[in-house]
Each structure stands twice: as C-alpha cells, then as structure tokens.
Inverse folding.
C-alpha cells in the first residue's frame, strides 16, 4: 500500500462514518511516519488498513466502514485496497500512553479526514504482542532496516499493563535476539 492509497481509504472511511478523527491501527499505520519508498517491502505489502475512530463506543462507525469499503466491496474491487473497520480496543497490546504519542499528517484542508497513526514503536509492541507470523515478519523487516530503536522498544514493552506479563516476557525475548 502507498500513502496515496491510504489517504484515499481514510477519506472514504471518514465520509462513510461522518467522523474526521480516524485512526490507523494496523501495519499500515507505519505510513503515518514513513513514506512507502523509505520502507522495506514487507512493511507495505498489505492491501488492507485497519481503520477505527477515536469516538466509536458502539463500533457502529467501524461496522459501516467495513460494509462500504471493506474486503470484496466495490471500493476494494475498484482500488485494489480496502479497509477493515476496527474498534480502538482491537489493539490489545498497546503500551500505556499510546494516545499521547499518535502521529498525524495533514491531508488537504478540504479533506474530511484528520488521520492519526500509531507511533512506530507502539505499533511494533502491538505487533509483537499479537505474535502472528505476518506481524513478526513486519517487525523483523523494520528492525533489519534500522527503523526502530531497541531501547525505546524495551521501554515501551515495560509500559504494557501488568495483566500482560507473559506477553511482556515473550516480547523481551524477541527483542533480546536483536541486541548486539
């Protein structure tokens, strides 16, 4: 996915939901910080973006996005990318304080979207917490490209709530394999 694809998705999602405060939660959140040309191919391989809204307590906005611009929709067929409507709580393994570290980039002032993206180290901790093969490959690609700092990742891991002690230990083990 390219930034232009993501911007198109964000505009469409905000139009569908009638809400400007959109949040990209999944791997494509990395495009909030880096242009696709700066990233390893594994970091932009996905054709879907996990899109949620900062104010969506009943998940209605996410459901509307899923229905209108989700997988197999006309939007997907026409553009080759799609949105997965998600609730903010979907990201189970975000470090405390993640909302204070959100990244934004301006679209045109006339755009219906005010996009927010997870800061790359917060995104990485969430991906390591999920521990799916595609997430580990994503993180590995970013680490191999020197786009993440291990001390920051270790500090963010420590910010995971205590209820995730086993996940924290697994993340620490993964990160230790990258220490030199």
């Amino acid at each position: 996915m390219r930034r232009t694809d993501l911007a198109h998705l964000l505009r469409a999602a905000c139009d569908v939901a009638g809400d400007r405060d959109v949040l990209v939660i999944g791997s494509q959140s990395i495009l909030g910080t880096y242009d696709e040309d700066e990233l390893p191919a594994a970091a932009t391989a996905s054709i879907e973006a996990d899109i949620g809204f900062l104010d969506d307590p009943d998940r209605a906005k996410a459901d509307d996005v899923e229905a209108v611009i989700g997988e197999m929709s006309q939007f997907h067929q026409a553009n080759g990318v799609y949105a997965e409507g998600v609730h903010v709580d979907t990201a189970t393994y975000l470090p405390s304080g993640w909302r204070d570290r959100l990244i934004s980039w301006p679209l045109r002032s006339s755009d219906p979207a005010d996009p927010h993206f997870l800061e790359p180290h917060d995104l990485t901790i969430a991906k390591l917490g999920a521990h799916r093969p595609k997430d580990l490959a994503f993180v590995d690609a970013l680490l191999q490209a020197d786009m993440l700092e291990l001390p920051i990742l270790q500090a963010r891991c420590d910010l995971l709530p205590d209820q995730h002690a086993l996940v924290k230990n697994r993340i620490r083990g993964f990160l230790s394999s990258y220490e030199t």
About this structure: The radius of gyration is 16 Å. The chain has a mean pLDDT of 93.
